[in-house]
Amino acid sequence: MRIIKDLTNRDTNRKKASELASVLRNYRLQFPDTSFIWLPKSAGTAIALWAMTELEPLTLDRVVLLSPAVSPVFPWMTHCERHGRMSTLSVAGRCLFLDWGTSLFGTADGVYGRSAGLVGLQETARMGSFLSNSLSNSLSNCLSTV
Asked: Can you tell me whether residue 25 is helix, strand or coil?
């Protein structure tokens, strides 16, 4: 099943993150005055977050993680501090995979359990305004959107 392969093929996902960072760098060079808002989804959020570590500061203006299939303790602060604001949003209908699927197969960063798309990213003392809105606080909240 492709969705499981996308989630668990961490070596390939890290390589894709480097390729993506290169594409984004070139895009920013070609369009320096264009506002850039990024919307990665599910396991792609891990690729996006890893790519962000390779980008120059403020390459991105805003990042919205859609149903992030990364662990709640993914070190997201190191990825977004250098860029614009970040939000998370759970997409209706993804609750089963963000709970059962990531508990069984692991999150994109290799942690077994509920994903950040279901329970939110862990807040830290340094968080400040980087995580502007987390709508994925619990399974009941997620299911109520279905």
From this structure: helix
pTM comes to 0.74
Q: In what order do the strands lie in the sheet with 62-66?
A: 37-38, 62-66, 85-89, 131-134
Q: If we measure between CA atoms, which residue out of 73, 78, 94 comes closest to residue 136?
A: 94
Task: Render pLDDT for 47-66 as a digit per residue (tens, 0 to 9).
Answer: 998 898 888 887 888 888 88
The answer to whether residues 83 and 60 touch, using CB atoms and an 8 Å cutoff, is: yes
Q: What is the pLDDT of residues 86-111, one digit of tens each?
A: 777 776 666 777 888 888 888 888 89
CB-count exposure of residue 16 (10 Å: 0-12, 13-18, 19+)? middle
